[in-house]
Amino acid sequence: MIAFNQQFRGRGARTNATGRFETQVREAFDDGWTIDDAPAAPLRTTVEPEKAKTVISRNDSPDIGFSASINPYRGCEHGCIYCYARPAHAYMGLSPGLDFESRLFFKPDAARLLEAELSRKGYRPETIHIGGNTDPYQPQERRLRLTRAIIETLIRFKHPFSAITKSALITRDLDLLGPAAAQGLTRVAISITSLDRRLARSMEPRAATPGRRLEAVAALANSGVPVTVMFAPCIPGLNDHELEAVLEAAAGAGASGAGYVALRLPREIKDLFREWLETDHPDRARRVMSLVRQMRGGRDYDATWGSRMKGEGPFAALIADRFRAATRRHGLERQWTPLRTDLFTVPRPDTGQLDLFG
Questions:
Q1: Which residues neighbour 52 within 8 Å (Cβ) at sequence distance 6 or greater?
Q2: Considering the chain, what is the average pLDDT of its residues?
Q3: Which domain holds residue 141?
Q4: How far is CA 192 from its chain centroid?
Q5: CB 90 within 8 A of CB 20
Q6: Peptide linkage before 233 cis (omega within 30 of 0)
C-alpha cells in the first residue's frame, strides 16, 4: 500500500487508487505513523511483454485526425499527470495512478505483426499515427527500440505515417524520418506544454525539458521533417498564459504548424489531477478547477464530440481566439497536405533466388 499523501521523486500521480473494474478496493489513509519529511523509497519501474494479435488500432471519432494508430507501449513512464491514457490501465487490473507510470507493458512482436497486417491481400494504406495513446519515445524505447522497428517496417512498405512525442529521443531516428519526409511519407508533432522548467517537471516529471523539445523541433525541421507543435493540454489558470510564448518559440525553432487541446479530465484523471494541484500548486488549485468547469458546462469534464477537445463558453472562446491570432502572427497556420499513399508497395520476400522476369 502506498503511504498516505506520500510523494515519489520523478512520479506524477500522488496515489494509486484501485482500478474501477476491481471487486476489492484499496484506499490510502493516514494511520498516524507517516513522517511527512521522510523521503519515499524509490518506486521501481517494471516492464512486461504483452501478447498482441494485431498492432493497428482503429477509431471512428470525429474529433481525432486519424483513424489508424499504433501504440508500442501501454502505460507511460513520463508520468504526465494530465495524461488522457491513464484510465485505460484499469482494463489491466491496475491503477491509473502510480501503476500507469511504473508498471508498463510493451508489444515485442509489434513490427512482425505490422508487416503481416500490411501484407494482407486487399489492404488499403492510410496514414498510421504512432503514439495516439501513450508516448512511443518514452524512456524504455531507448532500450527496446520498438518504435524504430515499426518505422523501419513502414518505410520498407513505403507506407505513410505520423508520430507525436514529448521526447527528444525522436532525433535518434532522423536517419529514417528525413528520407521518409522527402518522399512525402511522414510528419511529426512535438508536444510542448510550458517553457517553465519547474512547471514542466512538475506536470511531466520524466519527459524531456522544454529546451530539449525545442531542440528536437529544430533538428527535425533541419532534416526536412514537417513539424507541428502541440500546446496540449492547455490548462486554464496554470499554463494558458504561455500559449503565445510557446508558439513563438516553436516557430523560431522551425515548426511549421501548431495545434492545441484543452485539458481533459475523464474518469480517474479528475481525481488524480486535483490531488496533484493541491500538492504542487495549492495557491491556484481552486482557480484552475473553477476555470476548467467554466469550459466544461459546470462539470470537471464533458465528453461530447465536437467540444471535448476545445471546451466551450467564454473562456474557451478566448483561448481559441488567442490561438488563431498567434498562429497567424508566427506563420503556423499551415494546413498539411495529405501524406502519400500511392507509393505503397508490399516488398517481395527475400528468398535468395533471382527473379525470372526481373
A1: 107, 109, 110, 113
A2: 88
A3: 46-329
A4: 11
A5: yes
A6: yes
